[in-house]
Each structure stands twice: as C-alpha cells, then as structure tokens.
Amino acid sequence: MADADLEEIRRARLQQLRQQQDSPGAGGGEGSQEDAKRQAEAQARSSLLSQILTPSAADRLGRIRLVKESRATAVENHLITLARSGQLRTKVTEEQLKDLLASVAEQQEEQAAKITITRKGGGGGWDSDDLDDLLEGV
C-alpha cells in the first residue's frame, strides 16, 4: 500500500516537472531543464536507496548526511554501484552500513592531503649581530 502511494506521488511529481518544462512561460530555459534533470536524478537515487536500505539504515544515513554530507554521498554512491552490479542480495542493515561507513571514512582519510610544517630553530634566525645592525640605523 505504501509503495503504491509512493509511486503515485512520484508519477505526479514527474508529470508536474514535465509540465513546467514544456510550458512557454517557464522563463528559465536551460536552467529549469537542468534543475528538472537534477531533481529527477535525486528522486531516482532516493527511490533506489529506499529499496536497498532497511528503515534503520536509511535513518542512520540521513543523520550522517546532516553531519557530513560528503561522506553520506560517498556511501550512497558505493551502495548504488553495488546494487546496480547485482552484488546486493538483501537489504543493507544498519550494521552493514556501519561497516561500509568505516571503510569509506578510512578511504577519505587516506586521500586527505597531509600538511607538515617544519620550523627553523634558533628563534627565527635573529642573532646579536642582526640586532646591532638594526639599532645602528636608528
């Protein structure tokens, strides 16, 4: 029942987007087409994720998105790739999502640029001769 209602809402929204795109008074031109395309892609992603995630896993992914959107997007991309390649046999549970999050976090940490600062010793290179030279000019 809920799936049928959800599908009906999706169809109505898609039809609404098509009408906005086809109407001559839309004004946006290519911008509105790109927006409609992005919305359709987001809706397709959401639909696929709802099919492959348990409710608790989807809830956890939503909370992660609030904190770190890039990590949530990386996990979603990985899940979608697994689903499209047929490697997911059952819905992903919250525990499986935690494992996937840990591996994605590890990959992102490895990819992060590491900056090291080396400072020269000796107080920045000043010595008594430099101070004498500075005071002579005054």
TrEMBL record:
Pfam families: dsDNA_bind. GO terms for cellular component: cytosol; nucleus. Residues 13-51 are annotated as: Disordered. It comes from the Eukaryota. GO terms for molecular function: DNA binding. Belongs to the PDCD5 family. This is DNA-binding TFAR19-related protein. It comes from Mytilinidion resinicola.
